[in-house]
Amino acid sequence: MSNQIRYVSTRGNAPDLPFHEAMLTGLARDGGLFVPSEVPQFSAGQIRAMAGQSYEDIAFQVMRPFIGDSFTDAEFKEDIASAYEGFAHDARAPLKKLGANHFLLELFHGPTLAFKDFAMQLIGRLFQRELKRRGTKVTIVGATSGDTGSAAIEAFRGLDAVDVFILYPHGRVSEVQRRQMTTPSEDNVHALALNGHFDDCQARVKDMFNDFEFRDEIALAGVNSINWGRVLAQVVYYFSAATSLGAPDRSVSFSVPTGNFGDIYAGQIAKRMGLPIDQLIIATNQNDILHRCLSTGEYRTSEVHPSISPSMDIQVSSNFERALFDAYDRDGNAVAQLMDQLKAEGGFTVSQGALQALRETYTSGRVSEEETRAEITHSLAHSAELLCPHSAIGVKIARDMSNGQSPMVTLATAHPAKFPAAVEAASGIHPPLPPHMENLYERSERVTQVENDLDALETHIRKNRRA
Q1: What pLDDT, in 10s, does the model give residues 370-414?
Q2: Domains (ranges, CATH) in the chain?
Q3: Phi (first) and psi of residue 63, to 5 degrees
Q4: How far is CA 158 from CA 76, 80, 161, in A?
Q5: pLDDT band at 22, cuts 50/70/90?
Q6: Residue 248, preceding bond cis, omega within 30 degrees?
Q7: Exposed, middle or buried, 403 (CB in 10 Å: 0-12/13-18/19+)?
Q8: Per-residue DSSP letters for 401-428?
Q9: Residue 54: CB partners within 8 Å, gap ≥ 6?
Q10: Alpha carbon distance 78, 261 (integer Å)
Q11: β-bridge pairing 138-143 and 102-106
């Protein structure tokens, strides 16, 4: 392929890589995140032709240009097919009507009941294929605010070429999320409960990537949303949803419950590929750093307040760095400076030009705890839809911010059964787990509690990975 897309770092100081290398590498050597050197354009005709196609066919067309010759068409098609065959709904990401011109995109029909399965099931297969080809092994270390960890463990459990260590904030995930991580019995997966919050978990993972000696010794790989492959797989459902609602002949708006910014950044990529997206709404809970930043131009971390939507309890949204890179005209030095400032001072000011660029792509809103509970009650009463707390935030903001022009799609990021206590408190209904998980509370747990200390973590990982 002559038009091979390369992957460059948002901090401008790392070698550019082909897709499979960027996927296995995770975080660039300069601490930046990989983004494509260019974004392929789809014509209106190509987009129109997707209407009515299977999810798998749309996935192949949308992702194929980004893959280059890292995988053959046949390999890629095979991995896409097996990634989604275990989903509980034939449409994979079905749309459900909530009200006039408002739709819910159900992204929770995968094995761990969250949107992360769309990317993780595929990434697991591509990792396995590439590692087999090389005859090498990797150690995946990930941080999770709840859903990434269970999706990664589900995707990689039992694989010979991969050891998985997942850090989650002790006592700050739901019981279902925790048990999904601690009950798998395969000896290549390890759940680590870190004394701290999600930002601490994410910071320690980044520290490991920046400790090159350790990184190279254990062949460290990452599958957080810092991994470009994760973002790419999430671009697909923007296309499948929009084309089923009449794109490209009408534009579609999306409301996205946002924590680490990967899911909504995938929407920005879809828009740049030619999908006519009207509003792209960042829906935040009380940990509203992104909403504050878009409103004021100040990106300042503050204390993380635990909420009933724990997957969004984040102050340092990793993927926002990718949006900043575009907003600063792909100036890696400018982004590196901002990230140094964030580390040293806890925040930075976005330049006027970059803020303008961000506001041209995104709008934002914030939902309080009371409003989240009220929305769960409201949606059940008015749409007969039981929402998880994260999806409820998206729905509330979508209703508040809809311009009435284009169809509005809210991303339902998780199944209500992942957050039974919060859902029951708001609705009076205890959402049951689906059949494949109904004995989750009887399974025995394996978990190690760890301190927020880099040396101790690295020692534990060295000792427990299968050399």
Answers
A1: 999 999 999 999 999 999 999 999 999 999 999 888 999 999 999
A2: 95-112+229-427 (3.40.50.1100)
A3: -85, -25
A4: 22, 20, 9
A5: very high
A6: yes
A7: exposed
A8: H--SSS-EEEEE-B-GGGSHHHHHHHHS
A9: none
A10: 29
A11: unpaired
Do the Cβ atoms of 257 and 283 come closer than 8 Å?
A: yes
Torsion of CA 174, 175, 176, 179, to 10 degrees: 130
pTM: 0.97
The whole-number pLDDT of residue 1 equals 37
Question: Which residues are bridge partners to 412 per DSSP?
Answer: 106
Which has more confidence, 1 or 14?
14
What local confidence, expressed as pLDDT, does residue 403 receive? 87
Cβ atoms 386, 379 nearer than 8 A: yes
**Which SS3 state, helix, strand or coil, does residue 8 take?**
strand
Q: Which amino acid is at 14?
A: A
How many whole angstroms separate alpha carbon 54 and alpha carbon 80?
12
Q: Which amino acid is at 461?
A: I
For residue 239, give both structure tokens: 């296309």
Read off φ and ψ for residue 113, nearest 5 degrees: 65, 30
Whole-number Å distance between alpha carbons of 122 and 129:
11
Scan for tokens 């705890």, then name that residue.
Answer: 369
Name the one residue in this structure whose structure tokens are 């999908």.
Answer: 275
Q: Which of 224, 214, 132, 144 is nearest to 178 (CA)?
A: 144
State both tokens at 36: 């494509």
Residue 465 tokens read as 């990975």
Distance CA 397, CA 428 (A): 23
172-181 pLDDT, tens digit per residue, is 999 999 999 9
Active site residues: 116
Length of the chain in terms of residues written: 467
